[in-house]
Amino acid sequence: MSTPRHLLRRSAVFALFVALASSPLACKKGADTAGPDAAGGSGDQAAGTELRYKAGPYKLRADVKFSFKATSPQGVNEAAGDLSGLLDVTDAGGKLKVGLSVTEVRDFVLGKDMLPPPKEGETPVDPKTAVQGFTGAFVADMRGELDEAGTKALPETAAAKEKKGVEAAVAGFATGVLGLPELPKVALVEGKTVETNERKDENLQGLVIPVDTASKFTLLKIDSSSGKRIAEIKYESESSGAVEQGKQMITLDVAAEGTVLFDLDDQLPVRRTSSSTTNISAGQMGFEIVNTIDTTFTRA
């Protein structure tokens, strides 16, 4: 990384967006995180309620609205979308393989500086048209946490690496907004807040930053008025990290919050909302990224 501007190269922005967007309700392996990571279902346990996804196969429709805004010394870049996708969930040896595709695009706009310019003589590609052809896949555990090794081994991942230009750009956003919410590892008790802490290395385009994250999870209520037990979980977190690069310090600070509605009987997500603000400083330069996601899930 030769200059701080590297931090706002298009690929870096997309990578950070995907990382933030994919974890609106995440409970990692923190120092004070407790509770078994069973592959079984959701239910009332002695220590509280554990949330786990149903084993495949099944299909979910995801109706998503998202917004994204990146502010840097070079200006402001914004993106927004309103689309539907299909999540095709199958068994992956005690884990979940989730196939992704976009089925309907009501709105999809990327700022002009967020797309690579067309080559000479090349016809510009409409982002809305490009995202309509998106397909992808990932592997996750029964809490929805990404299995990086399993995902890397998928043929869909190899195919994604071949995408270039606008297709690669829109794929970054589609991957970030489509997917399963991560569920807490810990059992939750209604009305009580559980706090966890973790330290994890975050890789931002080759720059490894050790990041400390403090998270809070609260099971607000379990509503049975629909005939199903729907758990409402609130999530809040603050993360910070820093690394010295050359003669300057690179810092990363993230504040995030969200809620998930989860069907305890069917072991499926109902809705997730999330928002986060990320601030990156590199020497005297500062960058801010703000994104929001609102997703409703239904059986397909």
UniProtKB/TrEMBL annotation:
Keywords: Signal. Residues 1-26 form the signal peptide. This is Lipoprotein. The lineage of its organism: Bacteria, Pseudomonadati, Myxococcota, Polyangia, Nannocystales.
